[in-house]
TrEMBL record:
Its main location: other. Residues 89-133 form the Flagellar basal-body/hook protein C-terminal domain. Belongs to the flagella basal body rod proteins family. This is Flagellar basal-body rod protein FlgC. One of its GO terms (biological process) is bacterial-type flagellum-dependent swarming motility. It comes from the Bacteria. Residues 8-36 form the Flagellar basal body rod protein N-terminal domain. It is found in: Bacterial flagellum basal body. The basal body constitutes a major portion of the flagellar organelle and consists of four rings (L,P,S, and M) mounted on a central rod. The rod consists of about 26 subunits of FlgG in the distal portion, and FlgB, FlgC and FlgF are thought to build up the proximal portion of the rod with about 6 subunits each. The keyword Endoplasmic reticulum does not apply. Pfam families: Flg_bb_rod, Flg_bbr_C. The keyword Protease does not apply. Transmembrane segments: none annotated.
Length: 135
């Protein structure tokens, strides 16, 4: 296996964590949005990851985002009869997003991204030092 595959693996991990951070940001931005219909309220979005194994390299792996799915959590029903979007019974519907869970997910994704950056920087430093050995 080529020693440069580490850059592909770390890069794929960074790309996956970037997608995770983007979905968390979208979820947090829409956590307080409400709708008068439970079917039109924002649904939490989650990235789906899968292992990416390259042909010819059975021991190598990476990660890729196979898609973004909507959560099956039900909308939160709130009684707010004075709200302009309230239905005939006075209810509005909010997404079932737990802001604390999303913040924890964001911190985890950020740390995973930083770990991949550290792996890439270490691999670059090792490659540079190896090249200077012949001087």
């Amino acid at each position: 296996m080529s020693s440069f595959r580490i850059f592909d693996i770390a890069g794929s991990a960074m790309s996956a964590q970037s997608a995770r951070l983007n979905t968390v940001a979208s979820n947090l931005a829409n956590a307080d949005n409400v709708s008068g219909d439970p079917n039109t309220v924002y649904k939490e979005r989650l990235p789906v990851f899968k292992a990416a194994v390259e042909q010819g390299y059975p021991d190598s792996a990476g990660v890729q985002v196979s898609g973004i799915v909507e959560s099956g959590k039900p909308a939160e029903k709130r009684y707010e009869p004075g709200h302009p979007l309230a239905d005939a019974d006075g209810y509005v519907y909010a997404p079932g997003i737990n802001v604390v869970e999303e913040m924890v997910n964001m911190i985890s994704a950020s740390r995973s991204y930083q770990s991949s950056v550290d792996v890439m920087n270490t691999a670059k430093d090792l490659a540079t030092r190896t090249l200077t050995l012949g001087r």
